[in-house]
């Protein structure tokens, strides 16, 4: 969690320190179990957060490395091992999407997916590609929050597929009113931006779909779960994923 501050000249910065709650054991277990369920075997050491200084140092190193190769990430203003101060890179994608009507959301979602494909094609990975960690300043996308030490513990291509899954699932409540076609359109935008990445993604989702569809069928046994908003969103996403895999 970062906190904002504004200088006298109007410049906005963000500060993240080691004095903050880390992921609980229960939350860590949830992250680990979910990742393994969807076929992304992240190491327990990556899911369990116990050393705030190491996490912040890892994020600092990744920000410098990404900036050095021209990727759009916050500029590091200061780091002393305890506090990381970075520049502001615009409003987050989820904030912007919430400001738009459902009909106005899809083009920005597609643009974000295509931008993520380009990021991956350049050999990069995010590890936290939810809409809350992507920004748009009106001209370009940028990425935030690089604490997750997933590589080299996991293969690069596996983490890249996980990035796409994180993005799509984080958009579920915003994309659900638009229906499965919108989910397919977001995935197709990623695939169109880079054909090789798109084929890899299609194979990953084809392998994943039966597991998620099984969850949907089991939940249908409960009237309460079957009519829950969360399950309706999941089913919309699954239908869109199925259309993507089928190439429709």
TrEMBL record:
It comes from the Bacteria. It comes from Hydrogenophaga intermedia. This is Mn2+-dependent serine/threonine protein kinase.
């Amino acid at each position: 969690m970062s906190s904002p501050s504004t200088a006298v000249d109007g410049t906005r910065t963000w500060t993240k320190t080691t004095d903050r709650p880390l992921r609980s054991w229960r939350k860590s277990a949830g992250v680990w179990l979910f990742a393994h369920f969807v076929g992304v075997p992240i190491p327990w050491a990556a899911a369990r957060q116990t050393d705030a200084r190491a996490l912040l140092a890892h994020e600092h190193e990744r920000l410098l490395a990404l900036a050095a190769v021209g990727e759009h990430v916050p500029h590091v203003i200061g780091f002393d091992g305890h506090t990381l101060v970075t520049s502001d890179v615009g409003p987050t994608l989820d904030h912007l999407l919430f400001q738009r009507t459902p009909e106005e959301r899809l083009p920005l979602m597609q643009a974000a997916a295509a931008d993520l494909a380009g990021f991956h094609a350049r050999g990069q990975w995010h590890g936290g590609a939810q809409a809350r960690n992507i920004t748009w300043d009106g001209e370009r996308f940028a990425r935030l929050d690089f604490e997750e030490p997933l590589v080299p513990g996991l293969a690069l291509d596996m983490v890249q597929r996980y990035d796409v899954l994180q993005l799509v699932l984080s958009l579920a409540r915003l994309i659900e009113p638009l229906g499965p076609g919108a989910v397919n359109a977001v995935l197709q935008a990623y695939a169109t931006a880079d054909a090789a990445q798109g084929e890899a993604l299609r194979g990953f989702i084809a392998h994943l779909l039966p597991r998620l569809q099984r969850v949907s069928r089991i939940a249908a046994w409960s009237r309460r779960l079957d009519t829950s908003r969360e399950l309706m969103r999941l089913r919309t996403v699954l239908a869109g994923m199925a259309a993507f895999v089928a190439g429709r």
